[in-house]
Amino acid sequence: MGKKKLIVTGDRILIKPDEREDRTKVGLYLPQTVKEKEEVMGGFVIQTGPGIPLPDPTGLSDEPWKNLTREIKYLPVEARPGDYALFLRKAAVEIHYEHEKYLIIPQSAILVLVREEEETEDLSSEEDSENLPFL
After folding, report:
1. Span 11-40, average pLDDT
2. Are 102 and 46 in contact (CB under 8 A)?
3. Could you give all domains of the chain from N- to C-terminal order, each with its CATH number?
4. Helix, strand, or coil here: 120?
5. If you write DSSP's letter for every residue of 35-99 in order, what string do you get?
6. Less packed terminus of the chain by CB within 10 Å, N or C?
7. Is the dihedral of CA 24, 28, 29, 35 positive or negative?
8. pLDDT of 4
């Protein structure tokens, strides 16, 4: 049998829960029952679905028997693999896959994403602006 792969569908997001949050700021360890009562939870985005499928406006013709096969288009999700997400715990579904705990949540349950900034060149320096003809 070949290697298995998880495929996330729709606007759902696969998250690896952040288990590091087991201490308070003063260093006290929190029991699992306290952590389960929290309404907001955090974790790392592992994989995202393709997004929300959009209807094909050309499929609304007067001749429905002329069903042309077209590529499905999606409204993509905001989250990307590697992002850290804060989300509503009550919307999460817990699964276990290959001895690992994951959560599946809809995009609407995400409150905020933390993403590493990509390094870009700063074109606003004076040296670069002297070489640009339109400035």
Report:
1. 71
2. yes
3. 12-131 (2.30.33.40)
4. coil
5. HHT-SEEEEEEEEE---EEEP-GGG--S-TTS------EEE--S--TT-EEEEEGGG-EEEEETT
6. N
7. negative
8. 84
Which residue reads 């509503």 in tokens? 88
Tokens of 116: 């590493």
List the 93-97 sheet strands across, edge first: 93-97, 100-106, 12-17, 40-48, 84-88, 110-114
Is residue 126 left, alpha or beta, with left meaning phi > 0 and alpha meaning psi from -120 to 50?
alpha
**Do residues 41 and 19 make contact, with C-beta atoms less than 8 angstroms apart?**
no
Q: Which two tokens stand for residue 18?
A: 């952040």
Tokens matching residue 115: 């993403």
**Tens digits of residue pLDDT in 70-105:** 678 899 999 999 999 999 999 999 999 999 999 999
The pTM of this model reads 0.69
